[in-house]
């Protein structure tokens, strides 16, 4: 059973910057998350109108995945056996609060179905999968902090047991205007060895 896997590429979106494999691709100071992520969408000329209906978590995950996958050299719009494994510390709490506010307001009571759709954290995986035709395994885990150990074990197991040929995994967290995305691709090819220590190092290299 093969255990020699690699980190094929990785992407950070944090602190008003988008980085690909450690290199800054886009920087723009914006006072809030909504303005910044819209600028990211426009800068990379992402053509996906449904983006504007997404919640913050899905927008962040979607753009990190889009930048990473479009620069991975993989065929565009071709179905691929790539699993998606994401994690964060707050689930869909940011959207949950927004939805609760719509219920609590006695003067404007109307629980919005459009907001309710995003009160599950794994919805962002669906947005990524639809965009990039990824129809393999997927999971979303909740941890107190970035957990490289779990992501390493889980992604390696998926490939070893032939559940996927590659895995898009990482950390995507949003609360208010605080946001942190780190996604990477695990596959049999690449430059960086797929090790817990390397995953941790790359996450903190921003």
What's the quick description here?
With 206 residues, the protein is an alpha+beta fold.
Description:
The structure is a single chain. With 206 residues, this protein is α+β, with helices and mostly antiparallel strands. The protein has a single domain, classed as Peroxisomal Thiolase, Chain A, domain 1 (3-Layer(aba) Sandwich). Helix content is 36%, strand content 25%. Strands 1, 2, 3, 4, 5, 6, 7 and 8 form an eight-stranded mixed β-sheet that branches. Strand 6 and strand 7 form a beta hairpin. Helix 1 packs parallel to helix 2 (56-70) and helix 2 (56-70) packs parallel to helix 5 (123-132). This is 3-oxoacyl-ACP synthase. GO terms for molecular function: acyltransferase activity.
**CATH superfamily annotation:** Thiolase/Chalcone synthase
Low-confidence stretches are: none
Overall body shape: globular
Using the 3D structure, state the CATH architecture.
3-Layer(aba) Sandwich
Number of domains: 1
Average pLDDT across residues?
91
Largest sheet: 8 strands, mixed
H/E element sequence: EEEHHEHHHEHEEEH
| CATH topology term | Peroxisomal Thiolase, Chain A, domain 1
Q: Approximately how much beta-strand content do the residues carry?
A: 25-35%
Rg from Cα? 17 Å
CATH class value: Alpha Beta
Secondary structure: number of strands: 8
Structural class: alpha+beta
Helical percentage: 25-40%
Question: Total helix count?
Answer: 7
What's the end-to-end separation, in Å? 34 Å
Organism: Pseudozobellia thermophila
GO molecular function, one term: acyltransferase activity
Protein name: 3-oxoacyl-ACP synthase
InterPro entries: Thiolase-like (IPR016039)
């Amino acid at each position: 059973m093969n255990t020699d896997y690699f980190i094929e590429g990785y992407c950070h979106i944090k602190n008003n910057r988008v980085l690909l494999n450690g290199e800054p691709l886009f920087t723009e100071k914006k006072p809030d998350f909504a303005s910044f992520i819209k600028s990211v969408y426009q800068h990379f000329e992402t053509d996906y109108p449904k983006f504007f209906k997404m919640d913050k978590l899905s927008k962040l995950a979607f753009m990190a995945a889009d930048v990473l996958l479009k620069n991975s050299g993989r065929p565009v719009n071709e179905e691929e056996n790539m699993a998606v494994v994401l994690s964060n510390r707050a689930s869909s709490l940011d959207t949950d609060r927004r939805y609760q506010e719509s219920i609590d307001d006695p003067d404007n009571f109307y629980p919005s179905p459009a907001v309710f759709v995003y009160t599950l954290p794994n919805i962002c995986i669906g947005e990524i999968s639809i965009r990039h035709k990824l129809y393999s395994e997927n999971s979303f885990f909740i941890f107190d902090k970035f957990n490289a150990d779990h992501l390493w074990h889980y992604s390696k197991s998926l490939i070893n047991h032939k559940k996927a040929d590659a895995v898009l995994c990482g950390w995507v967290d949003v609360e208010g205007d605080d946001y942190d995305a780190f996604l990477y691709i695990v596959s049999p090819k690449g430059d960086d060895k797929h090790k817990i220590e390397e995953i941790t190092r790359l996450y903190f290299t921003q």
